[in-house]
Amino acid sequence: MTPVNKMKIIITEHARKRLRDYRQDRITTADITAAANSIPGRIPTATRFRGFFAKSGRMFDIVAKDISSGRLVITIIGK
Fold first, then answer.
1. What is the pLDDT of residues 48-64, one digit of tens each?
2. What residues does each domain of the chain span?
3. Residue 4: what pLDDT?
């Protein structure tokens, strides 16, 4: 088994604030980090990625983009 290169995940304050909303209830920062790490390749512009599942079973989308210091998670959209 080969080691997976994990890049640094930066979660914006806006995304952290949204985690306190009812629609994003039961989604943790660990769920967001795992989802952002699972996206292959490079993301040059802000892009919405759909269909991630939190450990709690809640479905969510993330908007992310790659910057020089890592992968920036801009916002979270709970389903």
1. 999 999 999 999 999 99
2. 9-78
3. 56
